[in-house]
Design a protein that fits this description.
- Residues 10-322 form the Enoyl reductase (ER) domain.
- The chain is an alpha/beta fold and 328 residues long.
- It has 2 domains: 2-120 and 293-323, Medium-chain alcohol dehydrogenases, catalytic domain (Quinone Oxidoreductase, Chain A, domain 1); 123-265, Medium-chain alcohol dehydrogenases, catalytic domain (Quinone Oxidoreductase, Chain A, domain 1, Alpha-Beta Complex), CATH 3.90.180.
- The protein is 31% helix and 27% strand.
- The protein has 11 helices and 15 strands.
- The protein has helices at 41-48, 114-118, 121-134, 151-162, 174-182, 196-203, 218-224, 249-255, 265-270, 272-287, 304-312; strands at 2-6, 15-19, 29-39, 64-72, 84-88, 97-101, 105-107, 142-145, 166-171, 187-190, 209-214, 228-236, 258-261, 295-300, 319-323.
- Strands 3, 4, 5, 6, 7, 14 and 15 form a 7-stranded mixed β-sheet that branches. Strands 10-9-8-11-12-13 form a 6-stranded parallel β-sheet, with helices on both faces. A two-stranded antiparallel ribbon has the order 1-2.
- β12, α8 (249-255) and β13 (258-261) form a beta-alpha-beta unit.
- α3 packs across α4 and α3 crosses α10 (272-287).
- The longest helix is centred in the last third of the chain and has 16 residues, at 272-287.
- 47% of the residues are buried.
Length: 328
């Protein structure tokens, strides 16, 4: 089978498409014939050796995929051959087959194709746990989403609207803001030439945003502290800008602000039921038409490096998906 492998940390050029044996499932494991793979920002960090976890070399990147169950190991009871599933793994998704524990597989609902399913769990799961469990977003509150046309940002726009919030989208171009508007943003801020702080205060009649969703960090984080409401919650998702910011404690004290972290992947090890319950809710919202996943690029598995580059260089909106050539 084809698999994309990283042979050295530090550069996307260290990725190659290799022929490797098809893996066999062990006890409690399932082999999935992969149809599509979702690319995430973390994949690029992992290849560079900059992620929280560094798998031993060589490794197959990729956190999520979707496909058809082909074989089950001893003791598997939740799925059977022929089932359509989405898979969440620590590594190994960039391949024509993957093996995963059965509790890392989620049934794909009727009406959702497998390419869409591959784009769904990480970004929607991240935003839902961030906004519902961590930030406790309430109906009627104002949610400011940075990077609002990106992989996680666009899902935060949709989920915020589904939860009854007024959504302000910030992004770096009119084209990206147009995508956010189509997915439910009620107000738009182009921070490449608008004053972010002034516009948020204008939109909220001087009050500021109740919840701020920040996958960008850097200067955007700094400005967020100055346009957040009394008792607001700023949720830290990542640092796409490249700079990890520091929060002045005096600002937190004076405005009674909470700065909250969200490393969604940790729930898969520490409290996997949180992930399962969240995805159950999200798949239900998808079935109700509340969520409309946006995929800007579909590439062949062999183009994995180019796909990661699209995310790194902010040339994509929503998700980038790799396909293996299989059809349903």
């Amino acid at each position: 089978m084809r698999a994309v492998r990283c042979h050295a940390y530090g550069d996307l050029a260290n990725l190659s498409v290799d022929e490797v044996p098809v893996p066999d499932p062990g006890p409690g494991q399932v082999r999935v014939a992969v149809h599509a793979v979702g690319i995430n920002f973390a994949d690029g960090l992992m290849v560079l050796g900059q992620y929280q976890e560094k798998p031993p070399l060589p490794f197959v990147p990729g956190l999520e995929a979707a496909g058809i169950v082909e074989a089950c190991g001893e003791g598997v009871t939740r799925v059977r051959p022929g089932d359509r599933v989405a898979a969440l793994v620590d590594t190994g998704a960039y391949a024509e087959y993957l093996v995963a524990p059965e509790d890392r597989l989620f049934p794909v609902p009727d009406g959702m194709d497998l390419v869409t399913a591959a784009s769904f769990p990480v970004v929607y799961g991240t935003s839902h746990v961030a906004l519902d469990r961590r930030a406790r977003l309430q109906p009627g509150e104002t949610l400011l989403v940075h990077g609002a046309a990106g992989g996680v940002g666009l899902t935060a726009v949709e989920i915020g609207r589904a939860m009854g919030a007024t959504v302000i989208a910030s992004a770096s171009s009119p084209e990206k803001l147009a995508v956010a508007a189509l997915h439910g943003a009620g107000h738009l801020i182009d921070y490449s030439h608008e004053d972010l702080r002034a516009r948020v205060r204008e939109i909220t009649d001087g009050r500021g945003a109740d919840v701020i969703y920040d996958p960008v960090g850097g200067d955007v984080f700094d400005t967020s502290l100055r346009c957040i409401a009394w008792e607001g919650r700023l949720i830290v998702i990542g640092f796409a800008s490249g700079r990890i910011p520091q929060a002045p404690a005096n600002i937190l004290l004076v405005k009674n602000i909470s700065v909250i972290g969200l490393f969604w992947g940790a729930y898969r090890q520490r409290d996997p039921q949180v992930v399962r319950d969240s995805l159950d809710t999200l798949f239900g919202w998808y079935g109700e038409g509340k969520l409309k996943p946006h995929i800007s690029h579909r590439l062949d598995l062999a183009e994995a490096a180019a796909g990661i580059g699209l995310l790194r260089d902010r040339q994509s909106t929503g998700k980038v998906v790799l396909t293996t050539g299989r059809t349903e």
